Structures are given as structure tokens and as C-alpha cells.
Amino acid sequence: MLPAAHRLRTAADFTAVTRRGRRARCGSVVVYLLADADSAGVSKVGLVVGKSVGASVVRHQVSRRLRAQLRERLDLIPNGAKLVVRALPETSAATSAVLGRDLSRALDKLTGGRSPAFSATDGRSGSSR
Questions:
Q1: Per-residue pLDDT at 2
Q2: What does pTM read for this prediction?
Q3: Which DSSP state fits 28?
Q4: Which residue among 50, 63, 68, 109 is least packed, with the fewest CB closer than 10 Å?
Q5: Using CA of residue 104, residue 107, residue 112, residue 114, what is the dihedral sign?
Q6: Integer CA distances (angstroms), 126 to 28, 74, 104, 106, in order
Q7: Considering only CA atoms, which of 27, 16, 26, 5 is closest in space to residue 83?
Q8: Could you report the per-residue pLDDT of 35-51, keeping only the tens digit for each?
Q9: Which of 93, 92, 95 is nearest to 54 (CA)?
């Protein structure tokens, strides 16, 4: 579960991020990032998992796996930024490790690699070994 302070909640926020934010597709996810230059607040994250991903049970499984991977990567999101992750149909067959790798790659693209590095193969921080 993502901390309540980090959840994107309103439809207006989702719309603003997907329309005005920068976008990166990596593997089975599309990540949108809208960063405010003068915002020093908490970063917020939202998920879009549509019916094209699968039935209700599959969508909820995908959502849980994505939330777990995002929770580990909250420190990679710039302060005050808003992030939306859209799951593509192939996420239903992807493992958590693959989802983590895809998220890390997309965040690296969007932040220009200025965030703490995650290994592209296993999703673990390079400094924790």
C-alpha cells in the first residue's frame, strides 16, 4: 500500500498529469511525470489499470504489484512531482521483477538519470548490497 500522502486522488490530477506531463513507455507500462519547478511538497502517484489488462481479479493483481514496486521507488520521484503509471495489456503476464525494471527504466528516462540508481536487472538499490 502506498502511504496516503503519496496517493493521487482526483480525476483532475490524473488528467493534468497525462495531458501535460512528460511520457515514457518502457516494456509493459507507460509512465507520465508532471514536475512543478517551485513545488517542494510530497510526490504523488496514481495508477491506471484498464479493462484491456484483464478481468477484475487480474487488474487488482497488477495494481497490487505496481503499487509495491512504486513504494520502493518513491525516493526516485522528484519532490512535488505527480506521477501516473498506465498499465498496458502485457502487464498481466509480467512478473514483479519485470514491472520493477520497466518502472525504473521509465523513471530514469523521465528524470534524466538524476535519481538514485536502481539496478536494471533486479530493481534493488546499488548501495544496499
A1: 80
A2: 0.82
A3: T
A4: 50
A5: negative
A6: 24, 16, 13, 18
A7: 16
A8: 875 566 889 999 999 99
A9: 92
CA distances from 46 to 53, 59, 77, 126, 129 (A): 16, 14, 12, 26, 30
Q: What is the mean pLDDT of residues 91-97?
A: 94
**CA distances in angstroms from 22 to 6, 29, 65, 94, listed in the order given:** 19, 14, 23, 24
Q: What's the rounded Cα separation, in Å, for the pair 17 and 11?
A: 10
* DSSP class of 95: -
Look up residue 53 and give its three cell numbers: 489488462
Asked if the model's pLDDT at residue 74 lies above 80, the reply is yes
Among candidates 16, 60, 62, 58, which has minimal Cα distance to 39?
Answer: 16
* pLDDT beyond 90 at 63: yes
For residue 69, give the nearest of 83, 90, 89 by alpha carbon.
Answer: 83
- The pLDDT score that the predictor gives to residue 37 is 59
